[in-house]
Amino acid sequence: MAATELLRVVRERYDTLDGTPFILVSDYADSESVLSLRELGADDVILKPIDLRTMKLTLQACLAQVKRLQRSNAHAWKPADPERYGRYTVDVQVSFSNLAGTLDGMSRGIIYLDSSGNIKNMNRTAEAIVSEGSFLKVASGRLCVMQAPPARTLREAIRAATRDQPTASVVPIPRETQAPLVLHVCPLDIKTGTGLPTVAVVVIDLSVNPPLSASIIAKIYDLTRTEARIAVALADGNRLDQIAKQFNVSSATVSFHVQNLFRKTRTTRQSDLVALLMRSSISAPVLQVAA
Asked: Domain 214-290 carries which CATH code?
């Protein structure tokens, strides 16, 4: 059985292995092949020839993620009042545990906080932004902003999200040479005092385009594989002549596929097509869960 088929079977049939990270070693260096492996459920992909230092760091990162989830599950999901919240808490625990793996595939950072502002969980995108340390950091288990005015705004937003009548807030964090980093603080419909997350903070980096998967937009718009690849190339900012050179085809062939893209997406201009494609960006794991 091929490794990809084994991974597919395990992810589809063995829920007990949901918390087990899978790292695949691949000969294929193109982004489409790597995305396909991630769609099957790979937590990470190491490309050949293998660099031992890269493999070591990848394994350490996956193991650290597993330990963080284990520590979180060890105390975060304990009901404050077992008789009152027992069944409710177990159901929510399962939901959040299942959601954790899906969040790791999202292009937006997601951070879960309890009613006191303590971090309960975060996905890989959020971890990468926080570990960079220029604008966000974790101090004493809490999410902190490095700049004073946005830090105060974030504290107020978290308080507003945990009130009896909670409200959502947007906290922009200015950056000198880039577009702002935006925190969307959203209340969750979960009672305080249960130990469960009550606030979700969505971290949006406006300077980074969300990744666009050819396989996903092919499903959305019923595109052929070639049409989907050309659509991704257009969304990445390539001109038609650049795409023709990249795919080793004529400009007329590329123009033919672009006309098909206009027809299938019901657009008439390239700018409208690219805008639609960027709005169609969906993380592969999210699509799998929804299917």
From this structure: 1.10.10.10
